[in-house]
Amino acid sequence: PAGPTSYRKHETGSARTEGFYKIDHKDKAAYVAQYQAKGKISDVNPVPVPVEESTQHVISSRSNRANARRRAAGLEEINQVQRAVALSKGETAASELTFKFNQLQTRKKHLRFSRSPIHDWGLYAMEKISRGEMVIEYVGEVIRAQVADKREQTYERQGIGSSYLFRIDEELVVDATKKGNLGRLINHSCDPNCTAKIITINGEKKIVIYAKQDIEYGDEITYDYHFPFEQDKIPCLCGSAKCRGYLN
Questions:
Q1: Is 95 buried (19+), middle (13-18) or exposed (0-12) by CB count in 10 A?
Q2: Any idea where the Post-SET domain is (predicted)?
């Protein structure tokens, strides 16, 4: 099918010969559907790199051992979840939550970052993730809210386009801008497949990303940022049918 008429036409026949130019948000939104239609998995799969035969054997054996451990851990996780269903909610719920969080640390999900049609880089599932499972913890430096406000201004002056400040509560904020993990690459969506929850483990508050629905191999991991309402609007390019148009 023919693409949207808002696509830029390159007179020379190649975008590379026309130098750098900025694309308006409205025009950029038209590209989102085009990228999403290309297929999710093909963009995520890594490009194969030739390796020496001996090295390839070592990598294969390591992968086999790692996969065996993951399968064993996965079976144990299923058994524990089945037992948890029979437990009464109350004091036991906290211990079960701790157990599940420990499972997140020992049996981490296969995730990969790659270019995203939503914004810059995104995080993709490299295995099937069931609804209700923990996907990844949002890791960063825990700072006070007053410090976070000053850092946000500093990041803007330094030209850092994206700051990764995630508020835990009125007092604490997780800053993953310079110290964090892959969780900071998760993009916003108005119709996300994940949700972020604040859980308390041994008196320490943590931000954990849960799957709201079954996530297939190659799906991009998304959650709703829930930005507060502001006059200066940030356009949303999630491309979902329920897109609100703006992040805030």
A1: exposed
A2: 232-248
